[in-house]
Amino acid sequence: MNKYFKMNNGIAIPAIGFGTWQTPDGDIAIQSVEQAIKVGYRHIDTAAIYGNEQSIGSGIKKSGSNRKDLFITSKVWNTERGYDKTLRAFDKTIKDLQLDYLDLYLIHWPATANQFENWERLNTETWKAMEKIYNTGKVHAIGVSNFQPHHLEALLNSATIVPAINQIEFHPGFMQEKCVKYCKEHNILVEAWSPLGTGRMLSNNLLKTIADKYQKSVAQLCIRWILQNGVLPLPKSISPDRIKENFEIFDFEISKEDMQTINNMEYCGGSGLDPDKISF
Ligand code: A2P
Predict the structure, then answer these.
(1) Residue 214 structural domain
(2) Among 119, 128, 131, 203, who pairs with 111 as Cys (CB 3.0-4.6 Å)?
(3) 140 labelled binding-site residue
(4) What is the 8-class DSSP label of residue 118?
(5) Does a structural domain hold residue 115?
(6) Domains of the chain: total
(7) Is 41 an active-site residue?
(8) Per its UniProt record, what PANTHER family does this chain match (predicted)?
């Protein structure tokens, strides 16, 4: 299993990222990031709306790592859509993270028809700003999050740069097959948020039985299963032991049969967030 994926602009991205959604700001975020880097993660995923960028930045500094060895992602929040606001949001994000550049910047959620009559136009304007930032070199790749094929289709009509990434909810029982297929066909790498179903997968009996066979935890099984599906997992934890555990997924391989069994699982819980229905 390769430890990197390659994005459509040729840049390598570490194959597992450290998720920080719901990681409280302050010492917990700082220590979690330090621990993640210590045990081997080189890819950290945050967002302005998580409210922890300053602490993530402090954790990165405290780790003593070379900036160029790390891959840092953040996202522009929904209230900052549009050309000028996105440019300003990016400046605030890199200032809060205490960085000179980002490796990846994403549109956090698409503007959609349920909230905006001119949703396509709004996404186009936001994307123009993303392209502008990319062309200045202050971000090495740009992408989207929570975009369904119809949102991507509309964006691609006016985009000059194809998004490198689409970060979506992805875990056993919720594989978003149509969206993943569309992304693969358009050379857009899919990242998985909530790879453990925000913890909901951990008590699943079928997953437990399969995990036992490999002497791995259900969390490790889910993370490895995502990788073997060609998707990039972003597990979150604030526990030093679980942060380490979630990175120990390069030393086993799930068989074809077990992959199929997990791929065939029915929906068994998820966030329930649909980009076409959200109200935030
Ligand atoms: P904690 O941060 O206390 O470890 P997801 O990445 O799908 O959003 O899931 C995150 C949730 O799963 C959090 O509640 C996290 O809690 C928990 N979690 C993360 N890794 C593990 C693990 N290896 N074992 C058990 N729970 C985990």
Answers:
(1) 4-264
(2) 119
(3) no
(4) T
(5) yes
(6) 1
(7) no
(8) 2,5-DIKETO-D-GLUCONIC ACID REDUCTASE, NADP-DEPENDENT OXIDOREDUCTASE DOMAIN-CONTAINING PROTEIN
